[in-house]
């Protein structure tokens, strides 16, 4: 068989081709010639109060060789930054500040354009280029805030109202901050830009102060302190000696009912479990259910005095601080967050105001527990019921009988545990059962504010 011999020229050509292809493959895969442009991270839209610089993050695996930032007002451009980086950096932050040259005076909206080029040899040694744009809205004006009216005083353990005006084209947050960390949220009131809120001073907190806070999207903040006359109130403290009959009766029964896994606990541990752990989880549930605040505009808030149990005799007060001891040794403590009322066994209890049943379930120490929302973040609570006459989601009318009193949960005798809540905070039910308190703190404040708003 004859072999066809290759000429030397075609051999050289073949070798050259091999080198060229190899070279291209090499270049294509070499990090020196990588083809991934830098990533530029900046918000698509920024509301800017000019106080803090706008930070732009730029990253590139090969290293950043050049950056440029340009601000345009639609007619003119200002170069904020343009620089070559001698030793390419893998990541870089540009801190954009507004030019102090008078550029963009009277303009509110700008476009920020950021360009970055990496140190790759790709693109005929030019490198990979990236560009990002951002709309900048300059806003240095604080929200307008003014108080129209508020309750004259607030009592420790009680509630108070405030009506105010808050205005900003791009409001981000509006709330009432307090000295104890709780925020209260207002409801739009009567006309655009006006708000109403109730606030509460928890009975376990020594002092009270509240300020309205308005923050716009650019971060401009306005604050307005609400001046209430602070009325202190001393709540009763008492020491209760725990009896074996109670521990082995109600406490053992309740444990078996709500958490049988704790049946084996020693009797005082069982009491601590019921009085502390279970109580906390029950109150947590109540907090969640009673924290919602309506966001729909309201023009009035008409409430009748609460009178949940006909001829109900007060058997325990709101705010009582109870210490428990066993054979003279302190064991535990608790706060009583409602008013205990008793009349006949299995007496009908009524809601004195319209509302929506937001909770009707077994709830540990509260037993069969009903909670009704009345609007403006106001809730009424009924504990230890023997039976329900309403269910969750029901709308109720003032005067409706909603349940029968009983002794479910941590109750020794048949009674109603009646609680009132303002945005999750338990407040003195006595205020809501008092016509003149309602008039001074709600009706007259609303009526006076409407007159001012209508002027
Ligand atoms: Zn009670």
Ends distance: 115 Å
Gross CATH architecture of the largest domain: Distorted Sandwich
What's the oligomerization state? single chain
CATH class of the largest domain: Mainly Beta
State the fourth-level CATH superfamily of the largest domain: Glucose Permease (Domain IIA)
Provide a count of the helices. 5
DSSP summary, beta strand count: 30
Task: Determine the strand fraction and express it as a percent band.
Answer: 35-45%
> How many discrete domains?
3
Helix content: 10-25%
Categorize the overall geometry.
elongated
Average pLDDT confidence is: 94
Derived from helix and strand composition plus strand pairing, the structural class reads alpha+beta
Compute the gyration radius: what is it? 35 Å
Largest sheet: 8 strands, antiparallel
Low-confidence stretches: none
Ligands bound, unique: zinc ion
- At the fold tier of CATH, the topology name of the largest domain is Glucose Permease (Domain IIA)
SSE layout:
Layout: H1 8-29, E1 39-41, E2 45-48, E3 54-72, E4 77-96, E5 109-118, E6 129-138, E7 144-150, E8 153-155, E9 159-167, E10 171-178, E11 183-184, E12 187-188, E13 194-200, E14 210-216, E15 221-226, E16 229-231, E17 237-241, H2 244-258, H3 267-289, E18 313-316, E19 321-326, E20 329-335, E21 339-342, E22 348-350, E23 355-362, E24 368-375, E25 378-385, E26 387-388, E27 395-396, E28 401-404, E29 416-422, E30 425-427, H4 429-432, H5 435-454
Bound molecules: zinc ion.
């Amino acid at each position: 068989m004859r072999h066809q011999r290759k000429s030397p020229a075609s051999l050289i050509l073949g070798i050259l081709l091999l080198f060229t292809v190899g070279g291209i493959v090499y270049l294509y895969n070499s990090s020196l010639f990588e083809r991934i442009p830098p990533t530029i991270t900046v918000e698509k839209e920024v509301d800017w109060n000019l106080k803090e610089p706008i930070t732009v993050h730029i990253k590139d695996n090969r290293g950043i060789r050049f950056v440029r930032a340009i601000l345009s007002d639609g007619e003119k451009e200002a170069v904020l930054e343009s620089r070559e980086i001698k030793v390419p950096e893998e990541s870089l932050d540009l801190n954009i500040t507004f030019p102090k040259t008078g550029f963009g005076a009277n303009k509110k909206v700008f476009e920020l354009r950021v360009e970055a080029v990496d140190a790759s040899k790709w693109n005929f040694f030019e490198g990979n280029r990236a560009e990002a744009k951002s709309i900048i809205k300059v806003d240095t004006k604080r929200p307008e805030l003014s108080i129209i009216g508020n309750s004259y005083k607030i009592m420790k353990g009680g509630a108070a109202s405030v009506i105010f005006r808050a205005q900003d084209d791009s409001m981000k947050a509006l709330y009432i901050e307090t000295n104890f960390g709780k925020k209260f949220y207002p409801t739009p009131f009567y006309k655009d830009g006006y708000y109403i809120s109730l606030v509460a001073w928890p009975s376990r907190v020594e002092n009270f102060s509240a300020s309205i806070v308005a923050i716009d999207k650019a971060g401009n903040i306005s604050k307005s302190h609400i001046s209430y006359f602070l009325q202190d109130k001393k709540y009763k403290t008492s020491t209760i000696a725990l009896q074996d009959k109670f521990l082995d009766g109600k406490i053992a029964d309740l444990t078996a009912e709500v958490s049988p896994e704790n049946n084996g606990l020693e009797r005082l541990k069982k009491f601590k479990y019921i009085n502390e752990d279970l109580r906390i989880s029950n109150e947590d549930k109540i907090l969640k259910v009673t924290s919602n605040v309506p966001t729909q505009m309201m023009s009035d808030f008409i409430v009748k005095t609460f009178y949940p149990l006909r001829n109900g005799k007060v058997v325990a007060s709101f705010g009582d601080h109870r210490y428990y001891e066993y054979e003279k040794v302190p064991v535990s403590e608790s706060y009583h967050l409602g008013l205990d009322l008793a009349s006949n066994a299995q007496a009908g209890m009524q809601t004195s105001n319209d509302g929506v049943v937001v909770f009707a379930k077994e709830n540990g120490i509260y037993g069969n527990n009903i909670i009704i929302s009345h609007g403006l973040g106001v809730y009424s609570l009924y504990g230890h019921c023997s039976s329900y006459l309403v269910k969750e989601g029901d709308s109720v009318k003032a005067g409706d009988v909603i349940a029968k009193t009983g002794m479910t949960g941590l109750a020794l005798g048949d009674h109603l545990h009646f609680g009132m809540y303002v945005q999750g905070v338990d407040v003195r039910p006595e205020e809501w059962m008092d016509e003149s308190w309602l008039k001074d703190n709600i009706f007259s404040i609303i009526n006076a504010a409407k007159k001012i708003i209508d002027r």
